[in-house]
Design brief:
The structure holds two protein chains of two kinds. By secondary structure, chain A is mainly β. In chain A, 0% of the residues lie in helices and 45% in strands. Chain A contains no helices and nine strands. Chain A has a five-stranded mixed β-sheet, with no helix packed on it. In chain A, β3 and β4 form a beta hairpin. Chain A starts with 8 loop residues before the first strand and ends with a strand. In chain B, 0% of the residues lie in helices and 49% in strands. Chain B has no helices and eleven strands. In chain B, strands 2, 4, 5, 6, 9, 10 and 11 form a seven-stranded mixed β-sheet that branches. A four-stranded antiparallel β-sheet of chain B has the order 1-3-8-7, with no helix packed on it. In chain B, β5 and β6 form a beta hairpin. Classes of the chains: A mainly beta, B mainly beta. Chains A and B meet through β3 and β4 of A and β4, β5, β9 and β10 of B.
């Protein structure tokens, strides 16, 4: 699976959009981009995933560049409860499905 | 539809004792993954199981750790003769398919403390 690079930390004002970037320049054509988050010490929470097209669900939007070498997770109206570590993970076939977590981005939402 | 269940949520063991951690996957999920998170560290994959089979144990320590997922009942992660370095949060996740287009859902974790 391709390696990902994320900024270690970011701040966001409550009510504003949080845009979390991820670089995955070695991604191959059949690898998906996944986002999870871990709030404090809770179990990781699935957010969204995509292959090529942009995706949106009730939690967030995922924007994948045309060359697929980077992506952005967008939380449209961040709340204090969105403070967490956000992980960008690339998953491809043939790895038995295990998730390889990096260091992630610690997002601090401030009032 | 209940989520992934793990029990106990907190477990305290003395050095040398055995720890048994249980994971019940979401309904309809037959693929279970175990991850460990040491204090102040990231999550690390340990083992992937399907019903009655260990598929990938590349992240499991070679000694004292074992896992099973029987035909009936929860998946069990067993740690024999625990040491202080085993103190960590252990999470399991389940999925309906192991393929890269299916997400995994995580349980709340078991926090193991070895005294």
């Amino acid at each position: 699976d391709a390696k990902t690079t994320q900024p270690p930390s970011m701040d966001c004002a409550e009510g504003r959009a949080a845009n979390l970037p991820c670089n995955h320049s070695t991604i191959s054509g059949n690898e998906y981009v996944y986002w999870y988050r871990q709030i404090h010490s809770q179990g990781p929470q699935y957010i969204i995933h995509g292959l090529k097209n942009n995706e949106t669900n009730e939690m967030a939007s995922l924007i994948i560049t045309e060359d697929r070498k980077s992506s952005t997770l967008i939380l449209p109206h961040a709340t204090l409860r969105d403070t967490a570590v956000y992980y960008c993970i690339v998953r491809g076939p043939g790895n038995t499905g295990k998730l390889i977590f990096g260091q992630g981005t610690t997002l601090q939402v401030k009032p | 539809n209940a989520g992934v269940m793990q029990n106990p949520r907190h477990l305290v063991r003395r050095r040398g004792q055995e720890a048994r951690l249980r994971c019940s996957p979401m309904k309809g999920h037959s693929h279970v993954y175990w991850y460990r998170q040491l204090p102040e560290e990231g999550l690390k994959f340990m083992v992937y199981l399907q019903k009655e089979n260990i598929i990938d144990e590349s992240g499991m320590p070679k000694e004292r750790f074992s896992a099973e997922f029987p035909k009936e009942g929860p998946s069990i992660l067993r740690i024999q003769q625990v040491v202080r370095g085993d103190s960590a949060a252990y999470f399991c996740a389940s999925s309906p398919r192991p393929t890269s287009d299916y997400e995994q859902y995580f349980g709340p974790g078991t926090r193991l403390t070895v005294t």
